[in-house]
Amino acid sequence: MNGEDYYIPAAAMAISLAFKLPALRHNWRDPLLRSVVALLTLAGAVFTFAAPPTIAAVNRWTGVVNFSAPLVYCLLTAFSASCLVLMVNWRGGPPERTLRISQRWIIGYFAVIVALVVLFALGETPVERLRDFDTYYANTPYISAMIALYLLAHHVAAVVMVVLCWRWSMQVRGWLRIGLMIIVAGYIFNLAYDATKMSAVTARWFGHNLDDLSTYVAPPLAAVGALVSAMGFVVPLVCQRLSDHWQTWATYRRLGTLWQEVQISAPSGTPSVQMAWWTAGELRVIQRESDIHDGFLHLGPYFDKALRDGAYESAVAEGADPETARAVADAAMVAAAVRARSADPEGKTIGDEVETLLDTADGPRDLLRISHALRHSPVVQAVRQRVAV
Q: By Cβ atoms counted within 10 A, which residue in 157, 177, 259, 358 is the most buried?
């Protein structure tokens, strides 16, 4: 792999990080968000500092031959810890337990990082190696232990992530399950990276040469694994947000029938609220619900409870469940009240004991049922025809 093959994944991580930083600035106390930012930062740093051009530059700037080796190993170890901490925070649970488990992983991998630095300081690496450091120094005292330790730490994190994500994916559904399965696929590539690295290093220990596995096969596996894993962390968050937006706009659209029905009840001269095209869907839904409830207020004097009870019985007789029958009855009462209001230009005065719609305690869900019934219920259509006659 050349420098571009490392810098492209690093750039992808940087772009993802740029999208997360504004959210972190507004909610920096969120441990899950901090974990995501830490993971993306460390993943980008690993690819940046593992690129051969960066390795040569760091060695030259520090004046220490092969200084980049322990630096990359430490970053990779910290990245492994960040993945485990992110998974712990993502899974959730009691805050004390989550914090305790996260601290254990952080302390354990911090000890590994300290050991890597100490082992490098004790060993000798006089020849600069930009691509094959692992196999070239596989039999060097202390350095061989450093190489084995970072590979073991990375392998443990990969195995734990695969097991945790697989078990969790069997307990959830939707976008979260898809994201977890993507993470599992990414860490399978990481396990393949560990296998190729360990095979090449072990071959050196026994006097054989499988250096190509470490030099040419392992790096692409690491790049693919990191990108796929990062996608698995991001997909559930992004797709869930898109799904929420879609649901909001669907709610706004489905409330349209009821909203248009009660508009006639607004007093003449009432100004209509105009929203800019960029207004958030949530605000539009709130405004539409407010308009509907205002309409109910003005239709109150025309609500006929007897008609509502009759429509409820008709809906039940046609096989509707109680919840649907209540929505059909409310819709029929609203439709009849709108016709009565249209036939009364003077309008009745709204008193203190206005008969209002009783079944809207659950908010938008009941209003959606009423709006749907206004458009599709035969009982409501029959009431409209009867009132018109």
A: 157
Which is nearest to 156 in space by CA: 218, 105, 86, 213? 105
Does residue 302 share a domain with residue 231?
A: no
- Average pLDDT (155-165) is 91
Same domain, 227 and 270: no
**Same domain, yes or no: 301 and 343:** yes
Q: State the sign of the Cα–Cα–Cα–Cα dihedral 85, 89, 91, 94.
A: positive
Which helix H or strand E contains 341, and what residues bound it?
helix 322-342
Kindly state whether residue 65 falls inside one of the protein's structural domains. yes
Q: What pLDDT band is residue 294 in, cutting at 50, 70 and 90?
A: confident
Residue 211 identity (one-letter amino acid)? D
Give the number of domains in the chain.
Answer: 2
* Residue tagged 């354990």 (tokens): 108
> Which residue, 113, 77, 94, is CA-closest to 31?
94
The pLDDT value given to residue 345: 64
Given 221, 244, 267, which residue is the final one in a domain?
Answer: 244
Q: Are residues 299 and 319 in the same domain?
A: yes
Contact 228, 186 (CB under 8 A): yes
Average pLDDT, the chain: 83
Q: Report if residue 280 sits inside a domain.
A: yes
Using DSSP's 3-state secondary structure scheme, residue 357 falls into coil
Between CA 65 and CA 125 the distance in angstroms is: 7
- State the residue for tokens 């869930």: 240
Do 51 and 78 fall into the same domain?
yes
Structure tokens at 348: 């009745």
* DSSP, residue by residue, 23-72: HHHH-TT-HHHHHHHHHHHHHHHHHHHHSHHHHHHHHHHH--TTTHHHHH
For residue 222, which of 321, 150, 302 has the smallest C-alpha distance?
A: 150
pLDDT for the residue numbered 382? 85
CB–CB of 88/101 below 8 Å?
A: yes
Residue 197: CATH number of its domain? 1.20.1070
Domain range holding 364?
A: 256-388
Specify the higher pLDDT residue, 265 or 226: 226
Q: What is the mean pLDDT of residues 237-242?
A: 76
205 shares its domain with 261: no
Task: With respect to residue 249, please indicate whether it lies within any of the assigned structural domains.
Answer: no
Residue 40 to residue 15: CA distance in whole angstroms: 9
List pLDDT tens digits, range 10-59.
887 888 777 777 766 777 777 777 888 888 888 889 989 988 899 999 99
